[in-house]
């Protein structure tokens, strides 16, 4: 018995260690990270430019989002004491360089610099440095203007943070284009570039994203099942997602949907099924996305799911951010293998029909 337990323990530790190292540290290329960087950069530029007309009105000397107002929201009291505002300025939880500027010229200048940083990050020039700077820019606006942010900012910030661990400029970037040009001129650099094409840093970045995105999906699905409740007729409490009419509530809000879907009110089974499909998808994604065979299906179903949510909720940036987050699970090798398997199956089917044709002829 002792020998069995000893052998089993050694085998368990060995297999677990091998699986752990394979999951986190297997080197991979930067294709997925590069694609994510490009898509994420476009979204970040859009979010950043939405502040442009109001950057002085928000953050100026007499701005509507003054440091005192932010302090009041976070600490429950208004205070004009400089140390309280400084606490908000330097506290890592509320990091923002925008607290250091309040005149119109400085605010417009740093806003322009932030836009340039996000543009360089998007096109992939000095990607490792620009990724860190883009994260600081996005985080600064989220912490400085908590009243005008939404669910999209936390998603893009976590993606940016994890992206700093990998080589997001290895694909779809100016950096990769310049590297290929140099490799064409210098054979020695070409060999060095080939050796560095695979990195475990890319794996760590993508795995961290995958784990975090999975938790987000499960949290969204479970939160929908647990509430929040609303008051209905007779002062009864009901959960709109559990009752099946959450989609109709989104459609019925005049400020939410991009298209008029009021006609769906006459088809309760349709919007109830739609509501149920959203909850089931979010819960299923958190589980089946780890299955290699089910992963492509989950990623494909996510397209109409988030597209429809953008139409009825009006919060398209959040839907786009979640689709970009899904790219962390996109592995071109898996899709290539699926394509090769389909091609092999078609060839085999064609060969099996060939003798029949010959006999008929």
What report would you give on this structure?
With 361 residues, this protein is mainly α. It has two domains: 27-198, no CATH class; 200-338, no CATH class. Helix content is 71%, strand content 1%. It is built from 17 helices and two strands. It has helices spanning 2-25, 31-49, 55-59, 67-75, 82-90, 104-123, 127-144, 152-163, 174-185, 187-195, 200-226, 240-243, 246-252, 268-288, 295-313, 316-326, 332-360; strands at residues 230-231, 237-238. A two-stranded antiparallel sheet has the order 1-2. A hairpin with a 5-residue loop joins β1 and β2 (237-238). α2 crosses α8, α2 runs antiparallel to α16 (316-326) and α8 runs parallel beside α16 (316-326). The longest helix is centred in the C-terminal third of the chain and has 29 residues, at 332-360. It starts with a helix and ends with a helix. Residues 357-361 have low confidence and may be disordered.
Topology:
Blueprint lengths: L1 H24 L5 H19 L5 H5 L7 H9 L6 H9 L13 H20 L3 H18 L7 H12 L10 H12 L1 H9 L4 H27 L3 E2 L5 E2 L1 H4 L2 H7 L15 H21 L6 H19 L2 H11 L5 H29 L1
Helix pairs in contact: 2-6, 2-8, 2-16, 6-7, 7-8, 8-11, 8-16, 9-10, 11-14, 14-15, 15-16
């Amino acid at each position: 018995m002792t020998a069995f337990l000893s052998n089993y323990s050694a085998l368990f530790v060995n297999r677990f260690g091998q699986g752990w190292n394979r999951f986190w540290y297997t080197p991979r290329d930067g294709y997925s990270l590069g694609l994510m960087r490009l898509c994420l950069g476009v979204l970040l530029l859009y979010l950043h430019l939405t502040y442009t007309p109001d950057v002085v009105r928000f953050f100026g000397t007499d701005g509507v989002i003054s440091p005192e107002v932010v302090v009041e929201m976070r600490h429950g009291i208004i205070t004009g004491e400089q140390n309280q505002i400084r606490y908000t300025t330097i506290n890592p939880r509320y990091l923002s360089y925008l607290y250091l500027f309040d005149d119109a010229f400085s605010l417009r200048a740093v806003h322009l610099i932030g836009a340039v940083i996000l543009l360089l990050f998007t096109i992939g020039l000095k990607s490792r440095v620009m990724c860190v700077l883009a994260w600081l820019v996005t985080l600064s606006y989220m912490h400085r203007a908590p009243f005008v942010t939404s669910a999209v900012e936390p998603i893009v910030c976590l993606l940016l943070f994890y992206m700093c661990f990998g080589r997001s400029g290895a694909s779809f970037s100016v950096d990769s284009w310049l590297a290929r040009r140099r490799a064409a001129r210098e054979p020695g650099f070409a060999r060095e570039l080939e050796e560095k094409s695979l990195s475990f840093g890319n794996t760590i970045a993508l795995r961290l994203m995958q784990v975090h995105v999975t938790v987000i999906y499960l949290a969204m699905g479970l939160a929908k099942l647990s509430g929040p409740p609303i008051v209905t007729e007779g002062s009864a409490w009901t959960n709109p997602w559990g009752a099946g009419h959450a989609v109709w509530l989104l459609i019925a809000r005049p400020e939410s949907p991009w298209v008029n879907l009021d006609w769906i009110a006459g088809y309760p089974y349709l919007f109830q099924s739609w509501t149920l499909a959203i909850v089931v998808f979010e819960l299923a994604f958190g589980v089946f996305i780890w299955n290699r065979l089910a992963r492509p299906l989950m990623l494909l179903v996510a397209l109409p799911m988030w597209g429809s949510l953008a139409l009825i909720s009006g919060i398209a940036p959040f839907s786009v951010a979640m689709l970009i987050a899904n790219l962390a699970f996109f592995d071109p090798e898996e899709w290539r293998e699926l394509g090769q398997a389909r091609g092999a199956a078609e060839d085999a089917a064609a060969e099996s029909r060939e003798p029949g044709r010959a006999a008929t002829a």
